[in-house]
Amino acid sequence: MDTNRAVTARAITKSFGNVVALDEVDLDVDAGQVHGLVGPNGAGKTTLLGLLLGLAVADSGRLEILGASVGRTLAVPDGVAGFVDGPGLYPSLTGRQNLSALASLRGYDGRRVADVDDALEQVGLTDVADDRVRGFSLGMRQRLGLAACLLTRPRLLVLDEPANGLDPAGRHHVHRVITRLAADGVTVLVSSHRMDDLAALCSDVTILAAGRVVFTGPLSKLAAESGELDYRLLTSDRRTAHRAALGTPGLHVVPGRDPGRWQDTEALVVRGPVPALDELVADLVRDGVAVRELAPVIPPLEAAFLALTDSDTGPDGLDEGDL
Amino acid sequence: MTATVALTETTGRPAPMLQGYRFELVKLLSQWRIRLLLLACWIAPALFVAMVSQQSVLPTDTVFGRWMHATAWSGSLVVLGFSCAWVLPLLTALVAGDAFAMEDRLGTWRHLLVAVRSPRRIFVAKAVASLTVILLLVAGLTVSSIVGGLIAVGNHPLVGLDGHLLAPGDATGTVLLAWISVLAPTLAFAAVGLLGSVALGRSPMGLLIPALLAFVLQLAHLLPLPVALRLALPSHAFLAWRGLFTEPAQTDALVIGIGVSLVWTVVATGLAYRLFLRRDFTDLTYDGSGRRIVVAGVLPLAGLVGVTVAVVAGTTSAEGTGIERAKVESSLTTAFGHLYVMQTEQLNRPAVTEAELQATASCDRGGDRMADEGPGHDWRCVVTWHLPGTTATGNAIYQLDVTADGRYIADGDGPKEVNGYFQVRTPLGDSPNPLWQLDGNVDLLARNPKG
Fold it and tell me: Closest to B110 (Cβ–Cβ): which among A47, A77, A83?
């Protein structure tokens, strides 16, 4: 047993009738890591998260969570918290009552009040703590769900679409909480359809497609898997930049490519390996051309996702539901 | 799952039972629907009894309704009768019938399972919390109806269903016993509610099942069913409490009714528990399965009715509809005797005892072409008694409407000063005539008095 592993799954298979949700899935999540789980609808993400939370048992395979083997009964190990398909909250109770009840169920009566207040503060809901959840927005519910997880002081946090319904400020808030937890040694397994969220949060990702793992590893490795990417280059002198790009070995200027949603004519789209891009930037700086923006047209994670899952739809086209 | 070596099994401790129960109670009591029910049950009966008791026209078609002006205890029993017919099944539907479905509607099953870590404890906590709320509601009905009556009418003797008088102290105990006895069928309906709630998930049918069952059983009780079948139904104790108000009390039917209700409670709760533990909580859109409900719910309960009928038929004297001429005559004679004595006191005449009256009744149903048995409104009885202080006898006629559960209303048609008029002139003024119309209850399980 690797004591640095929060999750070890080997050949996990789970079926619902004739539908194979997970097919011989392997997963390793190191302790203290923020690990992303991504995949198209029906890939088996929710099923896998459900197994980790003890909501279902696998048909076959081996699952170890926080050093303990998961048996056949529906049970979640100590130290595991999280939610799938959105947090479970009771609309007739206030935010504070929801959390207090959870603390009470977990036997935290002694330190309940302080912990509840602390959890509410961490997710920025102190001001509405005594309002009934019935009036909460989707984003507020997500944050309250996260607060409920924090209350249990987890060692493994399993989150399904935690940024769903959040405005940019709320998303930033949630990112901060997750990042802080990881810094404190908490392992976070997060599934999301938002590639930018995963890219911002995760050190490692696992991509599922049709119940199978098609990629697992660090983000940098995933970016490499995505091959050469298209980059949007915005400079102070487009003509000079275009000439420099053509003169850089390994780089191609993509003709007729819509450079981005702003439809500006000042941007170029170039394709090539990262070292060639480095060389281009150095040349531009030497020529006195300001580089205002250099970014992938499609983020690496998204590009890899599309490549590995053979998906025809972009990430914006993905639905919320999953198997 | 394949075996693992040298690894400890998961050790997630389930939530303490008391905390789970408290959480379920908080969830129930935070719902406006439950709060409204509690408010209604603790206030409405008092208002109803207080207002109706003061009316000149009383609900005489309801058992004890004709005595609402006379004692607080009648008002409580009228509320009890109405509650048994409609209110209690409806309350169980709204509380127990929604206990599990609520989590399906809110999509909170996964959260609850992760928090409590034990489906067994979730089931027990939900069942006990539902039971607590139902008991609070029944307690409200009881206390409120009694308090309303005591304030509006006062603590006076109660006329029983055989005409005998229960002193206020005895009435208090018997009325409370009647309310307690209906807890058993209430529990049975609550258990059916739990079963429906578990089996049907988000479907509103789960909520309706106790009310639907109550409606079907009410229809059944209107029919001239064999006594064994009538007693095997879980709602019989909702009617059998009336037997407490005769002397001697008709306890056999009540005890059987309570026993059957408790068996239903255990079986339906067990079926719900079994279904709950086998449920797949990964399906968020669970609306139940028709086949599963029939196999795991309806068929076992139908089988239970069959077994209970066989047991009741084999262990009691239950025969036919339980309503026979001799029983009707005996019941009417007793009631007439008790009420005649009461009327004599009311009119300030010389005291007379029932033994001196030597009252007898001769009953016939529907003339010569019909057998003198079974429920119907065509029973005709002639009551004969010895006039006090003379050798002459008096005769009074009663038209009886006997219902299938054994209850009857006897409508007097005799001498005006005995049972021919709705009022009698007393030294204190006109008063309702106790012999004009009277309520009675035939003991369905009693052996034929002449047999």
Answer: A83
**Predicted local distance difference test score (pLDDT) of residue B4:** 32
| Coil vs helix vs strand at A142 | helix
At residue B113, φ and ψ (nearest 5 deg) are -65, -40
Q: Could B32 and A92 be called an inter-chain contact, meaning their C-beta atoms sit closer than 8 Å?
A: yes
Whether the CB-CB separation of A59 and A248 falls below 8 Å is answered with no
**Interface touch A47/B282, C-beta < 8 Å:** yes
For residues A158 and A154, what is the distance between their CA atoms, to the nearest angstrom?
Answer: 9
**CA atoms of B53 and B47, how far apart (whole Å):** 10
Report the chain B residue with the minimal C-alpha distance to residue A81. Answer: B114
Cβ–Cβ below 8 Å for A69 and B10:
yes
| Interface contact A69-B8, CB threshold 8 A | yes
Q: At what angle do helices B251-277 and B183-200 cross, to 10 degrees?
A: 20
Six-digit token string for B366: 């529907």
Q: Which residue of B5, B10, B18 to mutate against A (max A Cβ within 10 Å)?
A: B10
Give the distance from residue A315's alpha carbon to the nearest chain B alpha carbon, in angstroms: 25
Reported as a single tens digit per residue, the pLDDT across B191-233 is 999 999 988 877 777 788 899 999 999 999 999 999 999 999 9
Q: How many CA atoms lie within 13 A of A128 on its CB side?
A: 16
pLDDT at B279 over 90: no
Per-residue pLDDT band at A319 (split at 50, 70, 90): very low
Rounded to an integer, what distance in angstroms lies between the CA atom of residue A6 and that of residue B33? 44
> pLDDT tens digits, residue range B231-271?
999 999 999 999 999 999 999 999 999 999 999 999 999 99
**Residue of B358, B365, B364, B363 lying closest to B334 (CA atoms):** B358
Nearest-angstrom CA–CA distance, A198 and A178? 11
Q: Inspect the interface and report whether the beta carbons of B1 and A80 lie closer than 8 Å.
A: no
Tell me the pLDDT tens digit for each residue of A90-149.
999 999 999 998 888 877 765 566 788 999 998 889 999 999 999 998 888 888 998 998
Residue in chain A closest to B278 (alpha carbons) equals A74
Q: pLDDT above 90 covers what percent of chain A? A: 30
- What integer pLDDT is reported at residue B370 of this predicted model? 86
Residue (of A184, A196, A114, A179) closest to A154 by Cα position = A184
- Distance from the Cα of B113 to chain A's closest Cα (Å) equals 7
- What does chain B come to in residues? 451
Residues of chain A with C-beta less than 8 angstroms from the C-beta of B104: none
DSSP for B250-303 reads -HHHHHHHHHHHHHHHHHHHHHHHHHHHT--TT-TT----HHHHIIIIIHHHHH
Q: Say whether A105 and B23 touch across the interface (CB within 8 A).
A: yes
Pair of tokens at residue B428: 């204190």
Instruction: Give CA–CA dist B160/B137, Å, rounded.
Output: 27
A126: Cβ contacts below 8 Å, ≥ 6 apart:
A117, A120
Average pLDDT over residues B31-56: 95
Average pLDDT, chain B: 88
Residue with tokens 């009310």: B211
CB-based contacts of B278: which residues, under 8 Å, 6+ apart?
none
Q: Out of B9, B106, B281, whose CB is closest to A71?
A: B9
Candidate from A16, A75, A104 with C-beta closest to B19: A104
Question: Is residue A316 over pLDDT 50?
Answer: no
Looking at the complex, does the CB of residue B18 fall below 8 Å from at least one CB of chain A? no
Q: Which domains does chain A have, with CATH numbers?
A: 5-223 (3.40.50.300), 226-298 (3.30.70.250)
Question: Which among A322, A302, A43 has a CA at the least distance from the CA of A195?
Answer: A302
Mean pLDDT, chain A, rounded, equals 83
> What are the strands, taking DSSP E only, across chain A?
5-16, 19-30, 34-38, 60-65, 68-69, 80-83, 156-160, 187-191, 204-209, 212-218, 229-235, 252-253, 267-272, 291-296
Picking from A115, A173, A168, A176, the residue whose alpha carbon sits closest to that of residue A143 is: A173
